[in-house]
Amino acid sequence: MAESIPAPTRPEQSFSSVRRDDSLYSVPLKRTVHLDVVLPPLYETSGSVDWPVLYLNDGQDLPRLRMMAVLDSLYKQQAVQPFILVAIHAGDRIQEYGISATADYMGRGSKAGLYTDFVLTELMPHIQKNYRISQKPEDTVFAGFSLGGLSAFDIVFHHADRFSRAGVFSGSFWWRSKSTEAGYRDETDRIMHDLVRKGSYRHNLKFWLEVGTDDETSDRNNNGIIDAIDDTTDLIDELVKKGYQYDASGQLSDIRYVEVPGGHHNQETWSAVMPDFLTWAFPEK
To answer: How far is CA 204 from the centre of its chain?
Structure first.
C-alpha cells in the first residue's frame, strides 16, 4: 500500500489559467465536446515551448476535484513539471466510456470505440493545432475516474504509440462479459483483465492505479476484500505476468498502486490523492 499526499488548500496566488473550448464538434459522437483547457504558469510568455499534456475524462468535475487549488499548490511548491490539462466533459458516459473492443454484458460502453476514435482522430489533433503541446508519447498522459478510468486505461494500453502513462482513480475493472446469473467467473469474464492477458508488453507504458478501502461494500467471492480492490490488484497481477515491473513503493517500477484508507468512490477522495498522481505523472525535472 502506498501513502498518498494530502490535497492542499488553495494559495492566494493563482498560477494556472483556464480556457473554455467549445469549438470541437465530434463526427463519431455526433455532439459538441466541451473542453476546459488548463494552461500552466508562463504559458503565454513561453514562446516555442511544447508542454506535456494530461487528457482527463469527466472534465466537468474539475470544481468538485478542487483541481485549480491542487495545481496552484503543486506549482507553488515546484513539485510538478508544468503541463497542459485537457479536461473533457462527459456526454453519454455510460455508453461512451468503457472498453473500445466490446460492450459489457448489458450493452454498456457501446460507444466506447467511437469515443476512442474521437480521442485519437479529433481531440488530439485539435489540441495539437490550437495549443503548444508536445506530441511525444512520453509527454502524453490519460487519466479518469471510475468508468472514465477504465476508458483511460483501455485507450493508453492499446495506443502506446500515442501515450506513455495512464492514471486510474477507482477504475471500473469489474466490467464483465457475463452476469453472475449466467455463470460469471473472475478468471475468464472480466473484460480488461482478458485484454491485458491477450495484449502485448510495451516498454514505454506506466500505470498509476488508486482504490479507496471504502470504495464499495461488495465482496462477490466472500474473501473479506472489497471487489474494487480485488479487481485492481488482479489487474496488476496480469500486468506483471505480461512483463510490467511492480514493487510496493511504485517509484522505480512500471506500476504504482495507491490504496487510500477510508477512501470513498467520490471526487473528494480523488482530489485528496490527486497530488500523488500528478507528481508521479509529471515529476519535476
So the answer is: 17
CB 230 within 8 A of CB 221: yes
Sheet holding 140-145, edge to edge: 17-26, 31-39, 84-88, 53-56, 140-145, 165-169, 206-214, 255-264
Q: What is the pLDDT of residues 156-192, one digit of tens each?
A: 999 999 999 999 999 999 999 999 899 999 999 999 9
With a CB cutoff of 8 Å and minimum separation 6, the contacts of 7 are 66, 69, 70, 271, 272, 273, 274, 275
Enter the pTM of the model.
0.93
Distance of CA 84 to CAs 70, 80, 165, 247, Å?
14, 12, 15, 29
CA atoms within 13 A on the CB side of 263: 26
Taking residues 19-29, report their average pLDDT: 97
